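pls design
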């Protein structure tokens, strides 16, 4: 019920207006900072994270955390988040290992003392509290949105925007072609690649002729599903956005029904509409503003997938479009 309540507040196009304003503001800041750094080598993977953290803070609290302003991590929050996904991907599949990892106070103390590895949770919580207090002192549009999300405000004239108007606005950013490119990228580098397990109910279950008794853990990996040649074709391992522009409606529907980037069904990601808006506006505005060239000494960047894919060494230089 909680997820349904939250999803309804994030998923309706008319209710994304305040979030849309915050996204535009942070996209603008990102473009300004990239303009100032034209010709310099930057890690676009790192800066995309700074933008994402600041944008989510701006949406929820009316203030960015300040990652873009600093041009780096704050209190090890992003590093801690990345490490959390790595550990979570392990103990999520083998839960009993946690007693030797995060629950092991001696190990955590040693990591802190000799490797400087700390738990950034407390710093992150303090940072969130600080932004909430700042937002409370100045009732911005984003603060009205936060109150509305909490159920403290039924509506706001500031947030009135009909679905048709907002969808036209979004379409200006997300053409059919750009949507296909983004979706294909998410298919090959899915946000979640470990099985999100479900437990078979007491009634037992038969899937594709396989009998699964009650209590069995069942899960699937988006990485595997997204590379099924029977669904995505013989070139399922290749980046081919045109597959989403196929005129065969039945094939598009079949591919969409197997698209697990945000999960599926009742347990699917409640923020998928907001996430697509974030990715779409960031990507399209970036490519509309700059030309990019590869600036690393290496031939490619490094992509590792634990719970979610992490790219490192995405070194580029920005220059104005010709």
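designed seq:
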């Amino acid at each position: 019920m909680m997820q349904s309540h939250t999803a309804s507040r994030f998923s309706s196009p008319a209710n994304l207006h305040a979030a849309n304003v915050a996204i535009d503001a942070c996209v603008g800041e990102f473009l300004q900072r990239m303009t100032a750094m034209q010709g310099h080598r930057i890690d676009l993977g790192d800066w995309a994270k700074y933008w994402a953290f600041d944008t989510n803070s701006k949406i929820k609290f009316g203030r960015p955390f300040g990652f873009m302003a600093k041009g780096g991590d704050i209190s090890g929050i992003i590093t801690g988040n990345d490490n959390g996904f790595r550990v979570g991907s392990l103990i999520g599949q083998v839960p009993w290992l946690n007693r030797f990892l995060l629950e092991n106070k001696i190990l955590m103390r040693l990591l802190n003392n000799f490797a400087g590895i700390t738990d950034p949770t407390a710093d992150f919580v303090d940072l969130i509290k600080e932004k909430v207090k700042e937002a409370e002192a100045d009732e911005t549009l984003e603060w009205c949105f936060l109150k509305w999300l909490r159920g403290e405000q039924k509506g706001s004239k500031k947030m009135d925007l009909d679905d048709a108007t907002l969808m036209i606005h979004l379409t200006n950013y997300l053409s059919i072609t750009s949507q296909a490119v983004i979706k294909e990228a998410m298919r090959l580098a899915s946000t979640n690649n470990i099985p999100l397990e479900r437990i078979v109910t007491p009634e037992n279950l038969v899937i594709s002729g396989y009998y699964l008794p009650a209590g069995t853990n069942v899960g699937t990996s988006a990485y595997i599903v997204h590379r099924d040649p029977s669904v995505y074709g013989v070139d399922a391992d290749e980046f081919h956005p045109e597959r989403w522009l196929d005129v065969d409606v039945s094939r598009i529907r079949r591919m969409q029904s197997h698209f697990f980037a945000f999960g599926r069904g009742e347990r699917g990601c409640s923020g998928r509409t907001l996430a697509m808006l974030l990715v779409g506006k960031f990507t399209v505005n970036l490519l509309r503003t700059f030309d990019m060239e590869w600036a690393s000494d290496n031939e490619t960047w490094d992509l590792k997938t634990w719970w979610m894919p992490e790219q490192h060494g995405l070194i580029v230089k920005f220059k104005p479009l010709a």
